[in-house]
Amino acid sequence: AKMAAAASELLTGWCLFGLALLAILIFCWVYVRKYQSRRESEVISTMTAIFALAVALISSALLPVDIFLVSYMKNQNGTFKDWADANVSRQIEDTVLYGYYTLYSIILFCVFLWIPFVYFYYEEKEEDDGNICSQVKTALRYTLGFITVCAVLLLIGAFVPLDIPNKKNSTEWEKVKLLFEEFGSSHGLTALSFSISSLTVIGMLAAITYTAYGMSALPLNLIKGTTSAAYERLENTEDIEEVEQHLLRIKSKCRDGRPLSSRDRRTVQQLEERLRTLRRRERHLESIEKSWWTKFCEAIRPLKIVWGVFFIIVALLFTVSLFLSNLDKALHSAGFDSGFIILGTNLTNPLNMLLPVLQTVFPLDYILITTIVMYFIFTSMAGIRNMGIWFFWIRLYKIRRGKTRPQALLFLCMILLLIVLHTSYMIYSLAPQYVMYGSQKYLVQVRCNTFKKKKRSCLVYQKYQCIVTRTYLFLHKFWFFSAAYYFGNWAFIAVFLIGLIVSCCKGKKSVIEGEVDEDDSDMSDDELSVYYR
Questions:
Q1: Are 117 and 139 in contact (CB under 8 A)?
Q2: What's the rounded Cα separation, in Å, for the pair 529 and 533?
Q3: Counting C-beta atoms within 10 Å of the first and last residue's C-beta, which end of the chain has fewer, N or C?
Q4: CA gap 93, 403 in Å, rounded
Q5: Is the sign of the CA dihedral 363, 364, 365, 370 positive or negative?
Q6: Crossing angle between the packed helical segments 301-332 and 212-224, to the nearest 10 degrees
Q7: Which candidate, 160, 163, 128, 209, places its Cα nearest to that of 418?
Q8: Which residues on neighbouring strands pair with residue 446, listed in sequence order?
Q9: Tens digit of pLDDT per residue, the chain (533 long)?
Q10: Distance between alpha carbon 321 and the CA centroid of its chain, in Å?
Q11: Which of 348, 322, 354, 512 is nearest to 428 (CA)?
């Protein structure tokens, strides 16, 4: 009977996993098809974007699975389950660890080989529609630079010393060293870990830039809404009339046959370009005003406000939790030389208090942690969509519905892959105790007249009584990366607050925000018409 029940649970788990995977693939296909340009779409770039986005979402789901497995091996009374002996628990831990390494290896493959190759191949195809072999060779030559960087990171990781500078007379320090020894005995692939940690630092910079801004911009955009299409169309009509009158005044100067001055010719050219843009805006606004989608959005406007208020409360909750967690590390960790690693919590935060309460009702805590992970992913998408793709102060690409170039989609997916790598550390910063141990408890002997056992939550490292998640051990394999993540959290908080102030000061967005630019061709109007019928 127990075997049958176990087999049934296993089958149910695989079915749920299959359904989740199918849902992820469908979402990725819809998302990519929604934003990609119809005129410039390519099968290879489309499939690459869908695959990379799916890998990012699947990788983000590893953290809840890891927490669930270490919690599932123990009973609520703090004892291990009958089947969870030392060998079985070690096999489960290794399976999760190998799952991380497999997905992270795929991420390395995408970031350093496949996405750069597809990007440069498409760039060569735009410049030269001739020989395919020549395009492949050129793309491989450029991609070789990325492969070289990956090889250097793997070599450095293979020989980098894991020993942290010694600090004597520090109890916290001894616990940190014990964690490193624990990971060292878990078949850790040092070279791959170093490469992934290096990418995680880049993902941290992307999260500071895009996720922090998206967490403030997304809720406030939902609350404020967009301007009315009818009102914008009226203003646009007035602008068209004003530009036409200005053109007539300038052209009236040459009615007697005299040529226009060079200054007037430049002005006429600029006004004609402006007039073309305004007329494209007119066509877009007319389509939006008549579309059923606009009427539907107006009907659910109160629901959008509710969601916006909810998201801004969640964002503020995350920021407060992150601040308290970082402050705890600053006050009670072993310092910079240990990567600000802290075992247990001295200053509790709202999220770290909420998760243990939800553990009493299965599976509310797993639903919450999964929701938090997805929230980070979707706010990152919102941040990238609002800001576009930037290289320092140079804007490379815009993310626009139905008009996004294949290269921009590839960049978007690469950025999301990097942000996903940093997501695990962000969640750990928000709820360190929960990410380390999940809902595990252990038994401790308490003397009260007689010796009796009492269960306690795993707050500090107990090598033989509490199982640490592979996520936690993976995050803290290199102390110097942990130190970088610590300072990155402070930068994340600062950027979020700046983005919140900027978003509050900005007015309502245009109903066609970012969809009509001066460099668009008239043919591009046909790409958007399918969305506004």
A1: yes
A2: 7
A3: N
A4: 45
A5: positive
A6: 150
A7: 209
A8: 452
A9: 545 554 565 566 567 667 777 888 888 888 888 888 777 777 888 888 888 888 888 887 777 778 877 777 777 766 777 766 666 667 777 777 778 888 888 888 888 888 888 888 887 766 656 677 877 888 888 888 888 888 887 777 666 655 544 444 445 555 555 545 544 444 446 777 778 888 888 889 999 989 998 888 888 888 888 887 788 888 888 888 888 888 888 877 776 667 777 787 888 888 888 888 888 888 878 888 777 777 787 788 889 889 889 888 888 888 888 898 888 888 877 777 777 777 666 777 788 778 777 777 767 777 787 788 888 888 888 888 888 888 777 888 888 777 788 888 888 888 888 888 888 788 877 777 777 777 777 766 655 555 555 666 666 555 567 777 777 777 667 778 888 888 999 999 999 999 889 888 887 777 777 666 655 544 445 544 444 44
A10: 19
A11: 322
Query: How many Å apart are CA 177 and CA 163, to the nearest integer?
Result: 8
Which positions ≥6 away from 62 have C-beta within 8 Å?
96, 99, 100, 103, 424, 471
Nearest to 202 by CA among 499, 496, 485: 485
Measured CA to CA in angstroms, residue 238 lies from 33, 476, 510 at distances of 35, 60, 17
339, burial (CB in 10 Å: exposed 0-12, middle 13-18, buried 19+): buried
CB 380 within 8 A of CB 416: yes
The DSSP secondary-structure symbol of 450 reads E
Residues forming a β-bridge with 447: 451
- As a whole number of angstroms, the distance between CA 127 and CA 412 comes to 22
**Rounded to whole angstroms, how far apart are CA atoms 159 and 334?**
25
The token pair at 246 is 């200005």
The single residue listed with the structure tokens 């091996």 is 73
The DSSP call for residue 80 is: B
Q: Identify the CA nearest to 211 among candidates 62, 392, 420, 395.
A: 420
Distance CA 431, CA 328 (A): 12
In one letter, which amino acid is 395? Answer: R
**How many distinct helices (H) and strands (E) make up the chain?**
20, 4
And the tokens for 467?
A: 């199982």
Token representation of residue 221? 């955009």
Which residues partner with 394 through β-bridges? 391
Please classify residue 102 by burial: count the beta carbons closer than 10 Å to its beta carbon, then call 0-12 exposed, 13-18 middle and 19+ buried. Answer: exposed
127: CB partners within 8 A, 6+ apart: none
Return left, alpha or beta for 340; rule: phi > 0 is left, psi -120 to 50 is alpha, else beta: left
Name the token pair of 268: 């006429």
93 vs 473: CA distance, rounded Å: 11
Angle at the Cα of 320 from the Cα atoms of 318 and 325, rounded to 5 degrees? 95
**Helix ranges, 388-451 (H):** 406-430, 432-437
Q: Which two tokens stand for residue 316?
A: 């503020």
Please give the Cα distance from 4 to 476 (Å, whole number).
39
